[in-house]
Design a protein that fits this description.
Strand content: under 5%
Structural class: mainly alpha
Length: 156
């Protein structure tokens, strides 16, 4: 079975009545947790981005509380999990400002964790890659926003 292209799917969705469309969306949400999370974001949280960012930051905080500092191996695994979760929420939003806010928060939490991340090459590279990613996204924003976010980035 061949998968249809996104444009073809969009055209077909325009032709469907609302009841059928609702059934399709409910069926999509039923099979994958990620689809349900994205649908929840789009329906309930997309209109209040600042509250969404606050909730994601709380989740990041709770994941950092479970950070095992006894070995770099366990800390690295936890940090990758936190970063994977952060990236998932960034994908849901799709806004550059949200991406910058959450990545900056992740980097701040990593620095505040009292984990000597510079000692582990993998963890340090993870940190540097996020800083590079923040710089790249900042360069895509309006100049006024760039200035504000660059100041925050320099504080890191």
């Amino acid at each position: 079975m061949d998968t249809a292209s996104l444009s073809h799917i969009k055209k077909e969705l325009k032709n469907l009545p609302p009841e059928v469309l609702q059934d399709i969306v409910a069926r999509l949400a039923k099979y994958k947790k990620e689809n349900k999370e994205l649908l929840s974001y789009l329906l309930f949280e997309a209109d209040n981005e600042s509250e969404y960012i606050r909730q994601v930051k709380e989740e990041i905080d709770s994941q950092f509380l479970s950070l095992n500092k006894s070995s770099f191996y366990l800390a690295k695994k936890t940090l990758r999990k936190v970063l994977r979760t952060t990236n998932k929420y960034i994908r849901y939003s799709g806004q550059k400002e949200t991406e910058i806010e959450l990545l900056l928060y992740f980097c701040k939490k990593l620095k505040a964790s009292r984990l000597n991340y510079k000692q582990s090459r993998v963890v340090f590279n993870m940190y540097l890659n996020q800083v590079k990613r923040i710089q790249k996204v900042i360069s895509m924003l309006h100049e006024d926003l760039q200035y504000d976010y660059r100041e925050e980035l320099e504080a890191l």
